[in-house]
């Protein structure tokens, strides 16, 4: 096993968090790096060690195998509440329209979204990204990197588009 | 008909959600909604409204009045409506677009729910290793949250009878001297020096004042975590 691969695995182990591609670009030969890392990831996952490497949030993360979930969750799981419908809807609107103000979210959903926004802020799924330059200077919200990690999404572009959805509906 | 309209408003996220439900139940075409029918059904649905939440009720009533307005405009002879400066077809189109958009986000929310479920099955390691400290560039929300969390701890009550006032200016001065010597200190250590909740509040205000005067800087590695107060040269 070469040094680069070892560094990749051990850094993911030590961190526990998502490590972005940018980190590896600094420490490794950047040419064709992403493909090499993906290969290392696949090789690692084939070993079926009970731990896996997943691609998430523009980076990689070492996690326990989802097949081990039932056994492990009693000891290591973080039984945080799943998100409410209101929170998911609000999050969906923000994800596509970011940066967006709370009132603009209300417009789309047809209801007041204040409590959902606050709850999402508390969960670090969204954050404030400045103010909109209009009267009242309302706060604008965007999704965080943790949002990608939480849902296991690699990149916002992976979310279904309105066009694709419309085609499915028809 | 009764079954269709036997609706609990709390099951819906709002008037748009209810509208989509009615459209679906009636097997209507989302792209060509019979406004008159939908308006009538919507109003029937909200008649039994016993929402305690006034704000939510208001949203439904507002939608009901809009639907009545739209219905009335569509009943007018086309030319009359145009004379009044309203193009009912265009309004209906815009309204439909709004519904479609909402329907899309509703489906995205379901998509996210699924993603959440599968993602949660991968357990993440609880890292003991600290992330590189980032400057807390004026995110007062995070600062305030961590403060509230910290003062929620139990504190042993000291039963002494003495004058219970603490001077803010004095505390700011004391802390400034303290930092000149100590250079940098974690917030929880400062808290431990406090004997009462009031003192904690004053210490916190004093730290904020020192930040404002650019005498110290604050660093926090994550939401709601302990933060570091560092003397500014």
TrEMBL record, chain A:
The keyword Oxidoreductase does not apply. The chain crosses the membrane at residues 7-25. Keywords: Cell cycle, Cell division, Chromosome partition, Cytoplasm, Membrane, Transmembrane, Transmembrane helix. One of its GO terms (biological process) is chromosome separation. SUPFAM superfamilies: Winged helix' DNA-binding domain. This is SMC-Scp complex subunit ScpB. It comes from Calditerrivibrio nitroreducens. The lineage of its organism: Bacteria, Pseudomonadati, Deferribacterota, Deferribacteres, Deferribacterales.
From TrEMBL, chain B:
The keyword Cell division applies. It is found in: Cytoplasm. Signal peptide: none annotated. GO terms for biological process: cell division; chromosome segregation; DNA replication. Keywords: Cell cycle, Cell division, Chromosome partition, Cytoplasm. Pfam families: SMC_ScpA. GO terms for cellular component: cytoplasm. It comes from the Bacteria. Its main location: cytoplasm. Transmembrane segments: none annotated. Belongs to the ScpA family. Component of a cohesin-like complex composed of ScpA, ScpB and the Smc homodimer, in which ScpA and ScpB bind to the head domain of Smc. The presence of the three proteins is required for the association of the complex with DNA. Participates in chromosomal partition during cell division. May act via the formation of a condensin-like complex containing Smc and ScpB that pull DNA away from mid-cell into both cell halves. This is Segregation and condensation protein A. It comes from Calditerrivibrio nitroreducens.
